[in-house]
Here is the input.
Amino acid sequence: MELSDLRWLVLVVVAACLLFFVYQASKPGSRFNTALRNSGAGSSYSFAKAQLLWWTILILTCFAIAYGEAGIAKDVLNSTSLVLLGISLGTVAAGQVIDYGDEMNPNIVRHQTTRRQFTFLVDILSDHNGISLHRFQALIFNLAFGIIFVIQFFETFGDTSTLPEFDSTTLGLLGLSSGGYLTMKFGENTEASPPAPAVPPAPAAPATAATPPTPATPPTPPTPAPPADPATPPVS
Here is the structure.
C-alpha cells in the first residue's frame, strides 16, 4: 500500500468515527447524547457543549483532509484553530462553573433540569424565559463563521495545507458572543423567594362545663276553699 493510500485510509477512519459520534449523539439515552446535556440524562441540551462539538468536528475534518492530501501534519493547524477551540472549551468550562454554583445553592431551581424538554435546537436557544436573543445571536455567528471556515478551506485546498485563518476582529466577535452568553447565564437561575412561615393555628377555646339543669319547681298546692257560712236562723 502506498503512503498516499494510507493517508486517505486515515481520513476515512476519522470520517467514520465522526459520523458514528454524530449518530450516537442524536440517540436519546446514549452516553454521547447524555454528554451534550447540561446535567446528565433528563436535562436540556447545552449550548456551550454543542458549540464545542461544532468546531471540533469542523477543525478535525479539515485537518484530516489536509493531512490526507499533503501527507504532513506540521503547520496544518494554526492560531485560528487554536483560538476557536479555546473559545469553545473555555465557554464549556465557565458554564460548568456557573452550573455547579447553582446546583450547590438549595434556593435555586435550575430551569435546565425542571422545564419540559424540547428538541435539540429549541433547548440550546432557550433560557428560563424561553428562546432568548443572546443565544440566537451566538448560534448564528457560530454557524456563519463555521460555514465560511469550510468554504475557505476548500477554496485554498491544494494550494496550501494550512487551515483557514480568521482575523482578530472575527475571533473577537466570536469570543464576545460566547462572553455574552456566559454573562446572561449568570442570571438565568435566580434564587426563589423563601416560603412564608406557616402561621400556627389558634389554640382551641377550653370546653365550657355544662350548666346543670335547673331543678323543676314543685307544683303549688291548691288553695283550700273557705268554709261555708252557717245558715242564718229565721227571725220569729
Observations:
- The two ends are 184 Å apart (CA to CA).
- The chain has eight helices and two strands.
